[in-house]
Amino acid sequence: MDTTPLRDAYRSLLDAAATVADSGDASPVPPAGEWNADQILAHVALVGAATITAVSSVASGAVTTYDNRLAQDTWTLERVIALAGGNAGLRDRIRIQADALCALGGPMLSEAELDTPVPTLLLSNGTLLVDEPVPLRGLVAGLAEVELPGHAKQLLALLPDGAGQHRPQVY
Q1: What is the pLDDT of residue 59?
Q2: DSSP 3-state assignment of 83?
Q3: 165 vs 107, more confident
Q4: How many helices (H) and strands (E) in the chain?
Q5: CA separation for the pair 83, 15 (Å, rounded)
Q6: How far is 72 from 85, CA to CA, in rounded Å?
Q7: Domains of the chain, start order
Q8: DSSP 8-state symbol, 70
Q9: Which of 11, 41, 110, 161 has the lowest tally of Cβ within 10 angstroms?
Q10: Residue 128: which residues within 8 A CB-CB, separation 6 or more?
Q11: How confident is the model at residue 70 (pLDDT cuts 50, 70, 90)?
């Protein structure tokens, strides 16, 4: 599996996170009901950890599932922010997760492993998106194609008017 799109998506997300962090606004305030930059990064770190777990489980022959609900829990997000040491620590964690996923999700896995169906439950802002088995390669591709680009846009939307984009609500 070619992980170039995944690496590129992580790079874009981390560039967006750095742009927001370097904007001079110590803590850009999101619209009501949306996450701030640290919460977005904590969510991405939790999703990355869940994806690493799924990939490692399939590689080890273990049965696995994929469920993103914990990555949306406010208490858990705040705990991850604290454990990572804030924004810079979260960006470092995500950068390392990107390296791990690009190594694990690519040349290490066979086609059969990448095609392994993983029971998946995905929610976004309380709305059910997926409740069915998804091939492992689909989980990895979903990060590159939807999850990471959506959160990069969400981060950039935190910039002062004119500097960001439309504020998509992506969870």
Answers
A1: 93
A2: helix
A3: 107
A4: 7, 3
A5: 22
A6: 19
A7: 4-156 (1.20.120.450)
A8: G
A9: 161
A10: 121, 122
A11: very high
